[in-house]
Amino acid sequence: MMPSSSVAGRHATDPPLHILVVRNDKLGDFMLAWPALACLKAGAPEARISVLVPSYTAPIARLCPWIDEVILDPGDAAGKEEQRKLLARLRSERFTAMLTLFSTPRIGWLGWRAGIPHRLAPATKWAQLFYNHRIVQRRSRSAKPEYQYNIELAEALLKALGRQPRPCPSPPYWPLAHEEVKAQRQAICSELDLDDTYPWLFLHAGSGGSAVNLSPTQYTELAIRVDSRLAEEEIRPHWLLTAGPGEEPAAHELSAQLSAAGLQARVLPPRQGLGDFALTLAVADLFIAGSTGPLHIAGCMDIATAGFYPAHRSATPLRWQTCNRAEHRLAFSPADDSDERNMASISMASAAERIVHLLLSHNFRQASP
C-alpha cells in the first residue's frame, strides 16, 4: 500500500518538480515506458523529466519528446568508482521523486542514498524496502499490457506528488512530424531505388536472443503467402529486412530466399546508430517481428504491427502488447492446446490472411493499374 505522504502543499514559489524515471534494461522494455513518460508530462507539464538508462538505449531516450535529460547507468557490473559517480550525480540533481518501473536492489539503494524524497516502485521482492511509495501489481499474472502497468505507476506517482492525473496522450507515443517521415521515406527511396507507390513491409526476423521467435523457414513462408495474396489485389510490396548486431547474415540469406521466390526483397543497410535505425522504421507501412525491441519502436510510432509471441504466462501477447492503436495491431501465438513455446504451431496461412486484411483495410499504397 502507498503511504499518505505527498507534496500536495507545494506553493507557487517552490522549484518545479524534477522526476527521475528508471528503466535501465532492454530496448523493448524501455519503449513500453514511453506511455508512462507521456502520462507524467500530461499530469505535470512543468516538470523536468530525467531518465536513467544504459548506454545502449540512450540514443533512443535522447529522441523521446517526453524526456528532458538522459543520465547513463553504468550497470550492476560497474566498479565502485562508477557507482559513486552515479550516486553523486543523483544527489546533485536534487530530484523531487524517483519512479522505478522495474526495481532492483542497487537502484532502490541509490535512490535512498541520493535522498530523493518520493521514491515509487512496484511492491515486489525485497528491493521494495528502499521505497516509501509501493504499488502492488503482480505483473507475473500478465493480466494487462506492460505499458498499462507502467502508466498505473506514473499515475500513482502524480497522486503522491499532489497532482491529479490527466488523460494519457493517445498513440502515437513517439509522434513524428509528417515532413520528417516524408524526408526519411524519400531518402530510402533514393538509397535503395524503391517505388514509393508500393507498400513497404518491414520484416525483422532476429530476436536478439530475448524471446522465442519464428524460424527463418516460417518467416519465408509468411512473406511469400502475404506477397501472393497482395498480388491478387495487384499490389506488389517492397520487403525491407532489418537486422540487429550479428543478425545481418541471416537477414541477407532470408532476402535471397524471398528474391528467389519472386518477391521484391532488400536488406536495409546499416544505419548510423540505434537512433537512426529507429527513425527509419517510421517509413514502414507494416512491421513484422517477434517480441523484440524494434517491434515496440514501431508500436510507439503507431505503425501497423504483426507480432509473434510465445504463449508463456510471463511473455503473452497481452503482457507484451505493442502500444499502438488496437486497429493497427496484430498478435500471433501458439494454440492453447500446443506447447507454449512451440512457434511451429502458429499457422502461417492464417497469419498471412490477417496481415493482408489489415493492409487492405487501411488502404495502404499500391501501384497504379
Walkthrough of the structure:
Helices cover 36% and strands 15% of the residues. The chain has 369 residues and is of the alpha/beta class. It has two domains: 143 residues, 3-Layer(aba) Sandwich (Rossmann fold), CATH 3.40.50.2000; 184 residues, Glycogen Phosphorylase B (Rossmann fold). α2 packs parallel to α6, α8 crosses α9 and α8 crosses α12. The longest helix has 17 residues. The N terminus is likely disordered.
By DSSP (H or I, 4+ residues per run), the number of helices equals 12
Range of helix content: 25-40%
Rg (CA only):
22 Å
**CATH superfamily of the largest domain, called what?**
Glycogen Phosphorylase B
CATH architecture of the largest domain: 3-Layer(aba) Sandwich
Largest sheet: 6 strands, parallel
Write the element-wise H/E pattern from the N-terminal end onward: EHHEHEHEHEEHHEHEHEHEHEEH
> For this structure, what is the CATH class of the largest domain?
Alpha Beta
Counting helices, strands and paired strands, the structural category is alpha/beta
Strand and helix layout:
Layout: E1 18-22, H1 27-31, H2 34-43, E2 48-53, H3 58-61, E3 69-72, H4 80-93, E4 97-100, H5 105-113, E5 118-122, E6 133-135, H6 146-160, H7 178-192, E7 200-204, H8 216-232, E8 238-242, H9 248-260, E9 264-267, H10 273-280, E10 286-290, H11 293-300, E11 305-308, E12 329-332, H12 348-361
Parallel strand pairs: 1-2, 1-4, 2-3, 4-5, 5-6, 7-8, 7-10, 8-9, 10-11, 11-12
